[in-house]
Amino acid sequence: MRLRRFVKFGTLLAACVLAPCLSGLPPQVVGGGCGKRPQSGSKASSNRQAQPQSLVCRYYGYKVLNTHPHDSLAFTQGLVFDDGFLYESTGLYGRSTLRRVELQTGRVVNLHRLLNHYFGEGLTIFQDKIIQLTWQSRVGFVYDKNTFALLGRFNYPTQGWGITHDGARLITSDGTSTLRFLDPGTFKQIGQLKVFDADGPVDNINELEFVKGQIYANIWPTSRVAIISLQTGRVTGWVELTGLFEPTGPDASEMVPNGIAYAPQTDRLFVTGKLWPTIFEIELVPKPAM
After folding, report:
1. pTM of the predicted model as reported, rounded to 2 decimal places
2. What is the spatial distance between Cα 228 and Cα 165, in angstroms, rounded to a whole number?
3. Which residues contact 6 (CB under 8 A, 6 or more apart)?
4. I need a labelling partner for 32 at 20 to 30 A (CA). Which of 76, 96, 117, 172 fits?
5. For the chain, what is the largest distance between any 2 Cα atoms, rounded to a whole number of angstroms?
6. Eight-state DSSP code of residue 6
7. 3-state helix, strand, coil in the chain (%, to 5)
8. CA 197, CA 105: separation in Å to the nearest integer?
């Protein structure tokens, strides 16, 4: 089976660690300060203390509030929570699907299989439509949210990795440090945003979720989640999911965290990973920079 580690290349950036209580999400940062490698030593500590509050980088660990069953054969590429259900896009050639999942039981209540030559990727729900990306085919699909009926398709010039929206624009990732904004009616690109922190561009941006005005992004194939300002592209914080699930077996290297879903009505955050048997409901816990 041709898994992603054999075909995705890019510089993995050593990132600073840790994850939030959603009610205490960091304010949007307008510049400065957030690097992937926490500073150490008295000089660095002194510099950090002297930074304006708007330039401070946040680091987070996590607290598990609940766990929910998840199909351990699902190679999760996109995750959304809507109307009490999880909607999921899964990948791998010959195994890619779109599915509606009952949160409490993990039961797949609706399933659409992609043709074997499509590798499913990111997923979002915009109004009453589901939008799903594919990896290298440069084709996206639009479905009716309730029936999963295929309504249309569209093309894009890059690889497809993650997708979310801010209520007005679709926001996509392609494995680089660039987020692209698409018109939700025409699917034409209307803008882009370079993502960076104090150490430079942040590459391998994967699954995306819009959370309280910022973008949460899995950084493939690490356990880190970047919190990104939509105004500047700067990473304002890092979430570290290490230890949430420890994979074993021959596919362990593929079983990285991927999948972030936010429920704004209840202020809940759900995370999972490729081939994970569990959906974790977590609270992000602020941590001091090291």
Report:
1. 0.84
2. 14
3. none
4. 172
5. 60
6. G
7. 5, 45, 45
8. 39
Report the alpha-carbon distance of residue 194 to residue 176 in Å, rounded.
9
Q: In this structure, what token pair is assigned to residue 209?
A: 């979720």
* CB-based contact 18:61 (threshold 8 Å): yes
Please state whether beta strands 235-240 and 224-229 pair in parallel, antiparallel, or not at all (unpaired). antiparallel
Q: Spelled out in words, what is the top-level CATH class assigned to the domain 4-287?
A: mainly beta
User: What confidence score (pLDDT) does residue 16 get?
Assistant: 35
- Quick one: tokens of 158? 């890059």
Q: Which amino acid is present at 43?
A: K
Token duo for residue 193 = 């945003």
How would DSSP label each residue in 39-108?
--SHHHHHHHHHS-GGGPPEEEEEEEEEEEE--TT--EEEEEEETTEEEEEE-STTT-EEEEEETTT--E
Gap between the Cα atoms of 47 and 62, Å rounded: 27
66 Cβ neighbours under 8 A, 6+ residues apart:
280, 281
Q: Which amino acid is at 191?
A: G
Please identify which residue in the block is written with the tokens 């890019």: 10
pLDDT score recorded for residue 44: 32
Nearest Cα to 172, choosing from 186, 189, 152? 189
Q: Is 212 buried (19+), middle (13-18) or exposed (0-12) by CB count in 10 A? A: middle
Q: Locate the domains of the chain by residue range.
A: 4-287
Q: Is the peptide bond before 221 cis (omega within 30 degrees of 0)?
A: yes
